[in-house]
Amino acid sequence: MDNNKFDELQNELLKLEAKIKELKQETPLLNKKSMVIGGILFFLFSILGIGAISTIVKPYNFLPETLIEPSHVNKNFDDLYTTVNAIVKEINSSNTNIVPVGTIVAFGGYTYNIPSSWVLCDGRELSRMQFKELFAIIGTTFGEGDGNTTFNLPDTRGLFLRGAGKHNKVV
Fold first, then answer.
1. Is 151 exposed, middle or buried (0-12, 13-18, 19+ CB in 10 A)?
2. How far apart are CA 152 and CA 150, in angstroms?
3. Is residue 78 within 8 Å of 57, Cβ to Cβ?
4. Computed over its alpha carbons, how large is the radius of gyration of the chain?
5. Angle at which helices 70-93 and 29-43 cross, to 10°
6. Residues 6+ apart with CB under 8 A from 83
7. CATH code, residues 100-164
8. Could you list the pLDDT tens digit for every one of the 171 residues in the chain?
């Protein structure tokens, strides 16, 4: 999942979380309850493709023309709120795995602010053992290093990123 998609999903979850808080404080919840719950579940199933969400249990079901206890509505929203928060927490904790190893990203900040798991595309040699995931992806495409224990990073200094095609074999 790319960063833009991740940010989009995270923003959508935060909006839904805010909507749940807002609805919990309103009196006429029944009219909006099914719309919000349906929207959240549709979002989770279709966008994130999370199969584990199928285990959500709605503690109370409401039938037309029946008296609804506010505590029952709140329990449904509390459970949904807990589920959404757990998903947001899971997404946030997996932040380092969002960008696949080997992805080249343009970074507009200072070099001292680069995330610790990133390396600059400056052509230097890296250890094949220490960076085995990266080596498994790019191998010796950008240089063999010492030919045994190291490999080279791409050197994109002074260049700009462009897609693969007849002028460039690397994506």
1. buried
2. 7
3. no
4. 24
5. 20
6. 53, 56
7. 3.90.1340.10
8. 566 777 777 777 778 777 777 666 554 444 444 444 444 444 444 444 444 444 566 777 777 877 878 887 788 788 888 888 787 777 667 655 567 888 888 877 787 788 777 888 999 999 999 999 999 999 999 999 999 999 999 998 888 877 766 665 554
* Residues forming beta bridges with residue 150, ordered by sequence position: 127
CA–CA separation, 12 vs 125, rounded Å? 41
Q: What is the pTM of this model?
A: 0.44
CA distances from 153 to 129, 161, 165 (A): 14, 15, 21
Q: Where are the beta strands (DSSP E) in 45-96?
A: none
Enumerate the domain spans of the chain: 3-97, 100-164
